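#onboarding

Welcome to the new folks! Below is a worked example of what a typical request in this channel looks like: someone posts a single protein sequence, and someone else replies with the predicted structure as tokens. Don't worry about understanding the tokens yet, we'll cover that in week two.

Example request:
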Amino acid sequence: MVWRDNGVVVRGVNGRAAVRGTRVIPFVGSDDRRNGKGIFVVAADRMRIENLEISGAKVADENGAAVRNEGRDLTICNSFMHDNENGFLGAALGTLTMEYSTFDNNGAGDGQTHNVYVDAGSSVGDRLIFRHNYSHRARIGHNLKTRARENFVLFNRIMDETDGTGSYAIDFSDGGLAYVVGNLLQQGPNTDNNDIIAFNPENIDPRRPQELYVVNNTIVNDLGRGAPFNVRSTTMTFRSINNLFVGGGTLYSGKQPEMITNLQAAAAVLVNAPNFDYRLNAGVAPINAGTSPGSVAGVSLVPDFQYVHPARRERRLSNGTLDVGAYELAP
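Example response:
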């Protein structure tokens, strides 16, 4: 299906509407020239996709997507994309927003297809807002790969879990401006890569800012080696504030971040780490150990929310001093 009308809302009612593909074949006619890219091909601006379950996208070049975006200002909300060659593939033109959605077991197993792959497009002001989502168990590819110039990755659960074979949890392929706040990030024992967050592993684009702010995340390494951070650039701004690191490995590969009130701890600080309940136990060291992260260029780094499973949020309440990590023990 190719959507060309601007401002369209496609919404499932009475629960999620299921859309399943088998094999999307490109047609010869000019009206269908965009077929062969995925189940939903967005060739319009200001489109919203809500309450849909999309699965089974396959195309001849094994790069099919549940949603393939070629428009500006797309929003995807409360949707479930699973068992596709790509869950999402396309450009962040204008502002691309993905929220309250689940991406699971997408990828062709070639390392070139992903749960979510956001390209830069042609715009110099492209922006990704990825918030309150659950992206997990990508097949060899990344759980989130983005080339957007600006990236807001906020209050998500991004994981391999026990059986996922994904590579990076988050891959900022060309760097850019990235805010990673309040997420639950986990590297599983079957990962295809040693590191969890990669920043400019492929290219350092001199046309864009190179700034990474990682604030109040809980980052768990169940692989036992590798690092939460793999940052190639040596001249960028890189701050790690109030993050809780659990598990083996080292803290960083490449550039060392400016570290502010981060903690390394054993899994016992978490309610139930083997079952991915990363809330804090009472009386543990991360409680009231954080500092106010302030703001950058008018963007607040304070974690106002925390992730609720699956793919929801709740207000983060504090007694005045932040806990370290993605969760605040209820005051």
